[in-house]
Design a protein that fits this description.
alpha/beta, two-stranded antiparallel ribbon, 10 strands, globular
Length: about 230
């Protein structure tokens, strides 16, 4: 992943500026994204018995709203930064979710999912692939295959490079009046959908785009496992 020196957009992933606020729900980046993600998952099969894996989960923006809904299911959250998960534990305590609740948090920079001990029906990422190179995306998809049930699905957003745009050039974007660029070679990355679909195919998935997510700058992709090949 890119460093803060390469691009300061990564600061918005960890949301550390929200850590000491009394009311995170008053912050647009927190409550609008939380609602958008939760509503999307509800439209696409989330139920009280779902086992959900949140890859690149960050400080429990989704997890703090999702865990109480999983009455018979389980929430797994993975993030590369252990400190972000410490922050996430603070968020969970603040909304009344105890340490003995139905969740497991995993710190790994290589998508090590050995701690996932239940079959996953729904995997989800918001603003993960936008900060990963293609090798890391491929690794993520391969690791996920180890825990995703047959018929399970993975939803993940990315910065899409539209037809006719120049892959080699920075692409200007705007989110809530904040201008930033995406790049072919550093964080945050942009990808043509066909390229991402080819990587997904190599990992054994069929990729399609989901038009109903509603993110202001990113595109949602759905990944389903293809037919297993036996040799």
């Amino acid at each position: 992943m890119g460093s803060h020196q390469e691009n300061d957009y990564q600061e918005h992933v960890f949301l550390d500026h929200l850590r000491h606020l009394d009311d995170r729900q008053s912050q647009k980046i927190w409550h609008e994204h939380q609602g958008m993600q939760l509503q999307f998952l509800r439209r696409h099969g989330l139920g009280p018995g779902s086992n959900v894996l949140d890859l690149g989960c960050g400080p429990m923006r989704l997890g703090s709203a999702l865990i109480p809904l999983l009455k018979n299911g389980w929430y797994f959250g993975q993030d590369l930064n252990p400190e972000t998960l410490v922050y996430g534990e603070e968020v969970l305590r603040q909304v009344g979710i105890g340490a003995d609740s139905n969740y497991t948090l995993i710190a790994s920079d290589q998508f090590d999912l050995a701690a996932v001990n239940r079959p996953i029906q729904i995997a989800f990422s918001n603003s993960l692939f936008s900060h990963l190179n293609l090798n890391s995306i491929h690794t993520c998809l391969l690791r996920l295959r180890e825990v995703l049930v047959p018929g399970g699905v993975y939803y993940s957003t990315f910065f899409s490079l539209e037809a006719g745009a120049n892959w080699l050039q920075p692409l200007g974007r705007n989110k809530w009046g904040q201008a930033f660029d995406t790049f072919p070679h550093q964080d945050p990355y942009h990808y043509p959908p066909a390229l991402l679909a080819a990587v997904a195919s190599q990992a054994g998935y069929r990729m399609s785009l989901m038009p109903d997510f509603g993110h202001p700058t990113q595109t949602m992709a759905r990944f389903r496992l293809g037919r297993r090949l036996w040799f």
